Amino acid sequence: MLRRAQRFGKVRRGRAERTLTRMTHAAPTAAPRESGDGHSTCIFCRIASGAVAASIVFEDELTMAFLDLRQFHPGHVLVIPRRHVSDIRSVDEDTAAAVMRIVVRIARAVDHAFPSDGLSVWHSAGEGANQEVPHLHVHVHPRHVGDDVLAVYPAPPDHPPRETLDDWAERLRNAL
Asked: DSSP secondary-structure letter at 89?
């Protein structure tokens, strides 16, 4: 039964059903392989290792892109580094560049496959930004005018005076 399901691209697991677009990953019943960084409990590490099924759009040595299980609009894709990195604050520049190269390719593919009024591309870093999975991931999400996905500000933001902005810019330059 499992082989038949794999052959047709679907694997049932409890209530969830995930469609595999590539059949190169381990069957979901296989024991999870620990990623090289010891993150066998991280769901994205488990997807990257093939221990958990996902609808994979793209993968290479450094990155992977797959459909988010939650599809507010069809075509919502997540792009991750294969190696466990908690968020953008701890990623090395080579991995970050690899992820962003794939984000660009995925954004173009989403735009082509799921025509929309625009795209949102985002990464939430840490608890204060409501990061739900502590593994760096970038969302590529098709958008439609008036959908109210990701309303950025709960109230109109302040517009600090230029002197304040210049001070903040200097603080950031010094942090680089």
From this structure: G
